TrEMBL record:
This is Amino acid ABC transporter permease. Keywords: Cell membrane, Membrane, Transmembrane, Transmembrane helix, Transport. It is a multi-pass membrane protein. Belongs to the binding-protein-dependent transport system permease family. HisMQ subfamily. Pfam families: BPD_transp_1. It is found in: Cell inner membrane; Cell membrane. It comes from Mesorhizobium calcicola. InterPro entries: AA_ABC_transptr_permease_3TM (IPR010065), ArtM/GltK/GlnP/TcyL/YhdX-like (IPR043429), MetI-like (IPR000515), MetI-like_sf (IPR035906). The lineage of its organism: Bacteria, Pseudomonadati, Pseudomonadota, Alphaproteobacteria, Hyphomicrobiales. Coiled coil: none annotated. CDD domains: TM_PBP2. Its main location: membrane.
């Protein structure tokens, strides 16, 4: 559950997990679906998570990112990957459908190039290779470079999902909006994107599920998320007898999160289909 996090400070990691879960649940409640409320929930939750995990303030002992692990690290990587990758995916999708050929073709080359690479190679490049090409002041911590690589991979796939949703919107609707004198951003924000996201919802939920399970790949660059922490646990003499129980417990955690996400996706589909009628 806590990976390499110091034993005497593990209560902070537990509270950080609760913070992420509460933040996610509140984001799924329709009453919070306004820009100001969502920003308040995510801003407060992210700040509280970082303070609890990092410490160094309010009398909390400092714990470096290299000691983060377990469920808290898994949730952190997943949430930040989606938080960074989703807006980036929308930008890439809009750029790919640009009327300027050099923009659309360059964006398409970037998307297809990222999608043609396995995630492990991208994580390894951002964690190990990239520091050799960057100045010291621009390198940052390895964890954040890994998150950026994961977000780039997520955005490349999600951009194609969003673009597919846009193609499902009848062209006449955007033409009608242009005839009414609506600006480009008004057409995108009020006509195109809402319908595109509804069309792309099933594939989007599937992409979120895949991204949550792919957090286990960060073990390749030295991070002990929940699955790697389980491997390390039953590798010790104290837990060697219980490897089946360890994997069953980890499987249960993955099942709870992924099944809940899938059921929420089904709820959104029902809600949107009611809106159509």
């Amino acid at each position: 559950m806590f990976g390499l996090y110091p034993f005497e400070e593990q209560w902070r990691s537990a509270l950080a997990c609760v913070t992420v879960v509460v933040m996610t649940v509140l984001s799924c409640i329709p009453a919070f679906w306004t820009g100001r409320r969502i920003a308040l929930v995510w801003g407060t939750g992210a700040a509280l998570y970082y303070v609890l995990m990092k410490g160094g303030v309010l009398g909390l002992a400092h714990v470096g990112e290299e000691a983060w692990g377990g469920l808290a690290l898994t949730l952190f990587i997943f949430v930040t990957t989606c938080l960074i990758g989703f807006p980036l995916a929308i930008c890439l999708a809009l750029l790919r459908r640009s009327d300027l050929p050099w923009i659309s073709r360059t964006t398409g080359l970037i998307i297809d190039g990222v999608r043609s690479l396995p995630l492990i190679s991208i994580l390894f490049t951002f964690a190990i290779v990239l520091p050799f090409a960057l100045p010291q002041w621009l390198q940052g911590d390895k964890l954040y470079r890994v998150i950026l690589g994961s977000a780039l991979f997520f955005s490349a796939y999600q951009a194609e999902i969003v673009r597919g949703g846009m193609q499902g919107v009848p062209a006449g609707q955007e033409e009608a909006a242009m005839a009414l004198g609506m600006s480009y951003w008004q057409r995108i924000g009020r006509i195109l994107l809402p319908q595109a996201m509804r069309n792309a919802l099933p594939a989007t939920i599937n992409q979120f599920v895949i991204s949550f399970k792919e957090t286990s790949l960060v073990v390749i660059v030295g991070f002990f998320e929940i699955l790697a922490s389980g491997n390390a646990a039953y590798g010790t003499g104290e837990w060697r007898f219980a490897y089946v129980e360890v994997y069953a417990f980890i499987a249960l955690i993955y099942f709870v999160f992924v099944f809940s996400l899938s059921r929420y996706g089904a709820f959104l589909e029902r809600r949107m289909s009611v809106g159509e009628r």
